[in-house]
Amino acid sequence: xxIVCFHxxxxxxxxxxxxxTVLQGLLERGYDIDLITSSGKxxxxxxxxxxxxxxxxxxxxxxxxCAFLKISLVQIYTFFxxxxxxxxxxxxxxxxxxxxxLPAVAGKLMGKRVIFHYHENAHVKGLYxxxxxxxxxxxxxxxxxxxxxxxxxxxxGHHITVVHNSLSDxxxxxxxxxxxxxxxxxxxxxxxxxxxxxxxxxxxxLAAELPNYEFNxxxxxxxxxxxxxxxxxxxxxxxxxxxxxxxxxxxxxxxAASVVVNMTDRRFxxxxxxxxxxxxxxxxxxxxxxxxxxxxxxxxxxVNGYKCDSTDLKKIAETIELLLTNEKLYLELADxxxxxxxxxxxxxxxxxxxxxxxx
Length: 359
What we know:
With 359 residues, this protein is α/β, with parallel strands linked by helices. The chain folds into two domains: 2-166 and 344-357, Glycogen Phosphorylase B (Rossmann fold, 3-Layer(aba) Sandwich), CATH 3.40.50; 174-341, Glycogen Phosphorylase B (Rossmann fold), CATH 3.40.50.2000. The protein contains 15 helices and 13 strands. It has helices at residues 14-28, 64-82, 102-109, 127-139, 148-151, 169-172, 179-185, 200-209, 223-233, 251-255, 275-282, 295-298, 313-325, 327-341, 346-357; strands spanning 2-7, 32-38, 52-56, 91-96, 113-118, 142-145, 160-162, 187-192, 214-219, 241-244, 259-261, 287-289, 305-307. The strands form two sheets. A seven-stranded parallel sheet has the order 3-2-1-4-5-6-7, sandwiched between helices. Strands 10-9-8-11-12-13 form a six-stranded parallel sheet, sandwiched between helices. Helix 1 (14-28) packs across helix 15 (346-357) and helix 2 (64-82) runs parallel beside helix 3. The chain is globular. The model has no long low-confidence stretch (mean pLDDT 94).
């Protein structure tokens, strides 16, 4: 079987990171893989083995018209590129995320099996994504969802498989879980994209309200864009907050943290899985996450972390202080976080995706 994989944008966010782990596992099992994605630096650059890569130029744009035109060009390119597999037998189109979707159309026209690995929640992203989701449900032979929460929004009641994300052995082996040392660091970490809906501004405010603790914020964007965003927000960065731009390697930050928070505003966006929470737990760190979404499925309130409404900054601040002033409680939650993280085994994830691809 030949797997032809399409992924819109190769960066260091969650979906290409998971895809790299999946494809690496499949390559090691002897599968024939072609990868079609954007050029530039990203998680998929770490993929090793005998596979073919086809790339195109693409990056995000804040201008909606420009973004639409860029995506449209990628759609057209990947649509026509798909027909190179017209006469190849036993080919599966494996599409990571909703975009690009035109290769799925090409795949159906050619009679290929089309599998979507669905990472978003289109139903909280607006009309454009909801239309894409409807197209996915119509085109897909199988849909892989990353959480029960995400799957619950799909209208079709068949050929949907929930496969939770997992972490690669390479990532886990570099973590240094030491709950007692982590408690002593008194450091709060958040990883986020550059969006007010992801809680960037709220995290800055939170750091100012808790001057006795260190705060680290990693934003998946350039320093120039981050500086412009903060200037436009009208906020001042307190001395105890350190802001970092896009990072290829986040392991050192987990190894230097005590608590990891996710402050996505449920009114505008919902985490379909919450990979950073799983990474934190694998590092033996308690997490504070929103009360809804796939991320809420992997955190048990008061057991391995806490669930707080991201708009309730007072509650989040109180929870951070509770964790970082009560060592006995902290160590108990950290131990449970490690145990929970071990349930998300990378081999199980790859086995389940392999089963879907081979049906």
